[in-house]
Specification:
The protein is mostly helical. It has one domain.
Length: 135
């Protein structure tokens, strides 16, 4: 029974590591600028990786994704293109509520707990998978 459990854990971790390796070049391209818009463009890739993540980093993925998805939702609700999002220059025509929701979501994404969660995800990919999320 223990051998079966260990095989299952190894397979799960290997699936995640394979997914990290498969998405590495794409994440490198998508996140090269390091901007919030770049993170938003990589959201589907991050969601895919989180789906494959082992249980020991699921909470970190959820913390990061909740924050990023919150910003994506605020932008979508305000009809702002995530590809052009710049937190220093929000588009004209936003009402106060839209502007505040976007600003609040950006603050959450930059929160030290969210940054630490993403750092943990990145570190786990390096340590366990021997593959950084991006080059």
């Amino acid at each position: 029974m223990l051998a079966g459990l260990m095989t299952g854990l190894t397979a799960c971790g290997q699936d995640y590591c394979d997914s990290v390796a498969d998405h590495q070049a794409e994440l490198t391209d998508l996140t090269a600028s390091g901007s919030a818009a770049a993170l938003l463009s990589a959201l589907p890739v991050f969601q895919d990786l989180a789906d494959d993540a082992p249980d020991d980093i699921a909470d970190e993925w959820r913390t990061f994704l909740d924050a990023l998805e919150g910003l994506a939702a605020a932008l979508r609700d305000a009809d702002v293109d995530p590809a052009t999002y710049d937190d220093k220059f929000l588009p004209a025509g936003l009402n106060d509520e839209q502007r505040q929701r976007i600003e609040d979501a950006a603050v959450v994404l930059a929160d030290p707990a969210v940054v630490a969660a993403f750092d943990g995800v990145q570190q786990q990919a390096k340590d366990v998978c021997h593959t950084p999320l991006s080059l």
